[in-house]
Design brief:
By secondary structure, the chain is α/β, with parallel strands linked by helices. The protein has 12 helices and 17 strands. The longest helix is centred in the middle third of the chain and has 21 residues.
Length: about 400
């Protein structure tokens, strides 16, 4: 069997962006399958930073960023969450500063202007390709969201054989109906909301849950779907007074005299824009102020009602994956190795129309996948649409 594979195949693997439960299942499955086929897996630590900051001539730097993987050191990693390889939000095509190992080199400069301020960045893709060549990598498996996979697509265009695996709690990567981490995030959000009903109800307040979703409202919408709550999503600016009226109606109709609402971190109402703060990361994202707190202030100002605001963000990505994320992670890993065995590349492992498939890596210029408001979100009741699901795949994405 080993001879049927590419005996000299050396596979690099990395995780980029935020961690989600299920990443370690992918890593372990790739290592185990590769060992069965006669391949070798090299872990790149801290995402794309591992290929921009490493000095392969320095043993200390090499040990920090390069980790040969085998059955022994990955045997138990799938029992926990996080990522065994660690992560970063490094974008090799847009680096503000050159790392020490690259300062003697010449790299293209990229100028970008935002709000009248021009900034200069470096594109160190040439150094990434050189390090990949020095490591002798035949394939690169990149596990990440739209930012990480966007750069994977760039490497594919530069001639590197790339396989992409989508992961993000936001579930907003294009060309797939499911990303690793989404199910566990919804499971955790549901548990937290159900637990907090007792506190919100005991004090007869309005509970506001802020949840991940910078550009897309899948996490908020699906959490609302299974908890039967109202929600605000980035794809639709709701009417503030109408939302408040609905919540007050919910509260009055509830024997325990409380109401709950979920808002995505990027949700907005008419006349309001989520405030951002801090320095932008390598992919241009800044932290968003807590829209839950701002909604709370508006509710108190309009009605005098007391509120409780809970930030359900990082807790959703911590801990071990649920069954679905483990299953999808293991399956995506197996699919990736099937592609490599057949010599295929520049593909992303995906679920389309409810079926596993390999698709084109999304064009990063298209941005994240968005909720189809017309078929999924009730713009009068600010709830998910529950009707007309017959014939849809399990994750309710419209074909």
């Amino acid at each position: 069997m080993k001879g049927a594979f590419m005996s000299a195949k050396r596979i690099g693997i990395l995780t980029g962006g935020g961690d989600v439960p299920g990443l370690n299942s992918v890593i372990k499955s790739v290592v185990y399958r590769s060992s069965e086929l006669g391949g070798e897996v090299i872990g790149i630590r801290r995402g794309w930073e591992g290929l921009t900051h490493v000095n392969l001539d320095d043993p200390g730097s090499r040990a920090r960023y390069i980790m040969p993987l085998n059955r022994e050191n990955t045997r138990t990693i799938d029992r926990t969450g996080g990522t065994y390889l660690h992560s970063s939000r490094t974008n090799p095509a847009k680096m503000k500063e050159l790392p020490p190992s690259l300062r003697a080199g010449e790299f293209p400069k990229v100028e970008s202007a935002k709000k009248g301020v021009t900034s200069t960045h470096y594109d160190v893709t040439a150094a990434v390709l050189k390090n990949i060549g020095t490591l002798g990598l035949d394939y690169m498996i990149a596990i990440g969201g739209d930012d990480t996979l966007g750069y994977a697509s760039r490497l594919g265009k530069e001639g590197m054989k790339v396989i992409a695996i989508p992961k993000t709690m936001d579930n907003d990567v294009r060309n797939t109906e499911y990303c690793i981490g989404f199910s566990t995030a919804i499971t955790r959000a549901t548990e937290a909301i159900e637990r907090q009903r007792t506190t919100v109800g005991s004090h007869e307040r309005i509970g506001i849950f802020r949840i991940f979703g910078r550009d897309a409202g899948y996490t908020s919408l699906y959490s609302a779907y299974v908890t039967s709550l109202r929600c605000g999503i980035p794809e639709y600016k709701f009417d503030l007074q109408h939302m408040i009226e609905l919540l007050m109606t919910d509260k009055a109709a509830n024997p325990s005299n409380y109401a709950l609402v979920i808002v995505s971190e990027g949700a907005e109402w008419e006349g309001y824009q989520v405030r951002e703060y801090g320095e932008a990361d390598a992919f241009g994202h800044r932290h968003k102020a807590n829209v839950g707190e701002d909604l709370s202030a508006e509710i108190r100002k309009s009605t005098g009602e007391e509120t409780i605001v809970s930030d359900l963000t990082y807790d959703l990505r911590s801990g071990s994956p649920d069954f679905l994320d483990k299953m999808v992670a293991n399956t995506f890993a197996g699919m990736a190795m099937d592609c490599i065995k057949k010599g295929e590349h520049d593909l992303m492992m995906a679920i389309s129309k409810g079926c596993y498939t390999a698709v084109e890596i999304p064009d990063p210029k298209l941005g994240p996948r968005k909720v189809d408001v017309e078929t999924m979100y009730n713009t009068q009741r600010y709830r998910p649409i529950y009707a007309n699901k017959l014939g849809l795949p399990i994750f309710l994405a419209k074909p």
